[in-house]
Specification:
Helices cover 19% and strands 41% of the residues. By secondary structure, the protein is α+β, with helices and mostly antiparallel strands. It folds into two domains: 3-124, Pnp Oxidase, Chain A (Roll); 129-250, Beta Barrel (Thrombin, subunit H). Strands 1, 2, 3, 4, 5, 6, 7 and 8 form an eight-stranded antiparallel β-sheet that branches. A six-stranded antiparallel barrel has the order 9-10-11-15-13-12. A hairpin with a 3-residue loop joins strand 10 and strand 11 (163-168).
């Protein structure tokens, strides 16, 4: 096994990255299948690695069907019950599982391998809290609708799957306090769709003069964010991450 594969395996397949919900694990497998994500198969015996695609997720029947692995799998076949690691990317986040080999299917109309349905799924979670700033042309207006206080409008500084940071003018009525729950934070992502989500105020920065305006920085943590919104925020963060990386390579940042 190459050093990079070993590093991934050592990191991903650890207790802290276990997916606790069986339903979420099933959804991640469905995502690997639906996105046609290339998966790396690592057979522990002999440290052999192959590349494959997931063709079928059959939880009720207790198996996964993978496309014929490459390079030439037919020349080296594991024995039934041999353990292996499988990892790919679901929603562009490293995702994997442990399984065992069941059988090699090689007929005129079909070629692939059947693996035992995994009992545990793993997924890295670091990108959930990876913060990115909006692009210059992206919407950045944020509206904080508070309980018993005036609505405050500010500018998005950065966002992640876990929350966002904004610059706002200090309120004229009730000052911000860490721990305050804001019933609705309104913001718009690229594409023009506006979202509203409850958030907890985690940090309040000092008032400072910026571009002739007095502002303070707020750190907000999403509270009760829906899976759909979380996925859209994560997707936006990944887009911006790739854009900034590309710009850095071209020398624009």
């Amino acid at each position: 096994m190459s050093e990079s594969f070993q590093e991934i395996a050592d990191t991903l397949f650890s207790d802290r990255f276990r997916v606790s919900s069986a339903l979420q694990g099933e959804r991640l497998l469905a995502t690997l299948h639906g996105e046609r994500s290339f998966c790396t198969l690592i057979f522990k015996k002999g440290s052999r690695t192959f590349t494959s695609l997931m063709l079928e997720v059959a939880r009720q029947k207790g198996y996964l069907l993978m496309d014929a692995p490459h390079p030439d799998f037919g020349r080296w076949q594991p024995v039934k019950g041999e353990p292996l690691l499988v990892f790919g990317r679901a929603n562009n986040i490293a995702t994997g599982f442990e399984s065992t080999f069941s059988e090699y299917i090689h007929t005129p109309g079909e070629e692939g391998i059947r693996l035992a349905y995994p009992g545990q799924i793993y997924q890295l979670q670091r990108r959930q809290f990876f913060r990115v700033p909006p692009a210059p042309d992206d919407p950045d207006l944020v509206e904080l609708r508070r309980n018993g206080a005036e609505t405050i409008r500010g500018r998005l500084q950065n966002i992640s799957g876990g929350g966002l940071s904004v610059l706002v003018p200090p309120p004229a009525d009730y000052p911000f306090q860490a721990g305050e729950r804001i019933p609705q934070v309104m913001f718009t992502l690229r594409g023009g769709q506006t979202f509203g989500v409850a958030a907890e105020l985690r940090s309040v920065g000092p008032v400072q003069l910026l571009h002739h305006e007095h502002v303070c920085a707020l750190g907000l943590q999403f509270a009760g964010i829906t899976p759909m919104l979380s996925e859209q925020v994560l997707r936006y963060a990944q887009w911006r991450d790739r854009e900034m990386l590309s710009a850095t390579r071209r020398g624009f940042l």
